[in-house]
Design a protein that fits this description.
8 strands, alpha+beta, 254 residues, elongated, five-stranded antiparallel β-sheet, three-stranded antiparallel β-sheet
Amino acid sequence: MKGNGSLAERDVPSLVQELHEQAATGFLTLTHAGVGRSISIHEGRMVFASSSSPDERMGPLLLRRGRISLRQMADATRGVRAGRRLGAVLVEQGVLSPKELIAAVVEHTQEIIYGAFALTEGHYLLQEGVPPSEDITLKISTPDIIMEGIRRIDSWTRIDHAVGGPEACYERAPAYVEMSRGMHSAPDKIALLRHIDAPARVEALCAATDLPDFEVCRVLWAFRVIGLIRRVDGAAAKAAELEDESVGIVVPED
């Protein structure tokens, strides 16, 4: 994979999936509007993340969640220095327990990564190398991170472009069972795979589930990135169109 490029040309979800498939180890740095996000990757798994934005530091996150007070954050911030992070200071001051610190670090790392999924401009840089050892790292599978990252994207323009519109036709990938093993996404989303036992159009899949059409399209995007489904054209799409007609779905004329 190219070691650097534009995020306007390379979508973050696809970038993360490719690193997962390559079992890459190193650092992925995403920069936009003067903010840099650095994600540590070990054998294709995202294990840690940091951000240069003051708004994406742990203190403001805990403050927003109501887990620390303004005074506690201010006092702990004064104790931060090289090699001594805010979380450790909060534990020393008795504000957080060690168990609460672990949960906070995991949540903080996830929020930085999920926030990166919203980027549509900027640049990425991949550097090979073994990330420094961290006491607390993510244990979440890359497919689950992709599912959640895309779930937080509300841009219909991005979703529609990624899925291809109501006429786009999809089928399950041959290895979808193996790929979905270990995923912990909502059952109603995983159940959508059952409706793709044969090539099916997006419109038909929206009609086959109780999920809102917007959510169906977002899930299909995530499934396609992960590799659970693939888009088909030609004869398979025509067969799906005939199947739609047989179950009463109106197929627009050209």
